[in-house]
Amino acid sequence: PQRWLAQGRGSPRLVLVVVFVALLLDNMLLTVVVPIVPTFLYTTEYEGANSSVAPAQTEPAPPALRAPPFSSLFSYFDNTTVTVSGSDSPLGVPNGTESSLQPPSSPPAPQRGCPEGDEFLTKENVRVGLLFASKALVQLLVNPSVGLLTNRIGYHIPMFIGFTIMFLSTVMFAFSGSYTLLFIARALQGVGSSFSSVAGLGMLASVYTDDFERGNAMGIALGGLALGVLIGAPFGSIMYEFVGKSSPFLVLAFLALLDGALQLCILQPSRISPESTKATPMSTLLRDPYILVAAGALCFSNMGVAMLEPTLPIWMMQTMCSPQWQLGMAFLPASISYLIGTNLFGILANKMGRWLCSMIGMAVVGVSLLCVPLAKNIYGLIGPNGGLGFAIGMVDSSMMPIMGYLVDLRHTSTYGTVYAIADVAFCMGFAIGPSTGGAIVRAIGFPWLMVIIGVTNLAYAPLCWCLRSPPAKEEKMAILSQECPLQTQSYSRQRPLREFPLTEDSDVEEENVE
Fold this sequence. Notes:
The chain is mainly alpha-helical. About 70% of the residues lie in helices and about 5% in strands. The strands form two sheets. The chain has a two-stranded antiparallel ribbon. Strands 3-4 form a two-stranded antiparallel ribbon. α6 packs antiparallel against α7, α7 packs antiparallel against α16 and α11 packs antiparallel against α15. The longest helix is centred in the N-terminal third of the chain and has 36 residues. It is found in: Cytoplasmic vesicle, Secretory vesicle, Synaptic vesicle membrane.
């Protein structure tokens, strides 16, 4: 086993496995709370407060102030008036049926209609949006520091720090019973996610130096991200409905421990391995217009699904009267299609042109978002959410390799800083989206929110054309071009190997090589 581990530590494939698992668990925790938080807050804060009124009315009054023999009691669960008898006689209900009086401590009957409290649900859009955005906002602030840290000490130690913080956040989610504790746990997750994503993507870019192989590796790693998104929301809704709130988080905590053991065996996180070359300053990268265009595509394409996370479940509760398990299953088509898109276009994007792939993807994102409010039930969400996930997979699997390629082409080939910028763009979408989405829904409604973000993606899509053939800096002219890497490489290596004396066919052979 020791010899196998020693050989495996030098294998890029095992590094890819570690990054895949880290992104998988990070995004499972990211999405597992999406169906849980709205219903948990509604149950604990709205129903909990109102249901306490009903038992109070069933207590017998003092003899001097005893109510009449029959009094009316309003139920907050089935919204019907029940006639309560002060004696042992059965209850009289409007439809003529009779049932025995149950004690106040018995659970209420299952709710079959739409949830009450439209005003509470409307306000909850803002609170849930802020809670979801806290993770991305904290990650946005921490990312630049993590990028600089990876340039100084390498990628292995930050990866293990990310695992440790993610484990603590998961355990805190399991035992949090109030909005404040959930908010703190979500913000703590942002710190751990920053370490894991920046260090993981930078590590992949450093071990896969060939542009084509790097694109394939990024597609597989983003497949782990997609699989986490795919499993998270349905897993959370089903476990919360049938087992309890803490159960999905305890399962994730156990999986996180396995990920930590995997990192200890393969990465050796106690070893410091700084970059051999000095990294380009982040301020210089932020002034590069091509990096900004790529970062903007990541931001706006992911902002659409970020706005859906807090607002779509509440909109479904209000308009479709959806049960709890459907709130997470609504994201299943987007997750499956994202998983397909990232793995498919990790290979195809290099052949068809990553700029074209991302431009088409952003256009499809815009059209899909415009179609979401047209759904009348959960089945009507399959098409728009499926197209949305597939298109975001196209954009992500194209833009992540482009970020590494732009650094190779125009700057120093160190990747911690540029993938910190990519993660900042990703987090800006998930910070601005939920926080502003809830406020926009409260002001003008959910359909207009989808129109705004859909039109924004359609308007931004043509800018991806700028990434078709970015120019290289003078000192980087020898770097492989995006369109024909193998031909350029063979030309530079084979020309000095021509044999002498030259024959008449030498010039013809040279033209064929070129």
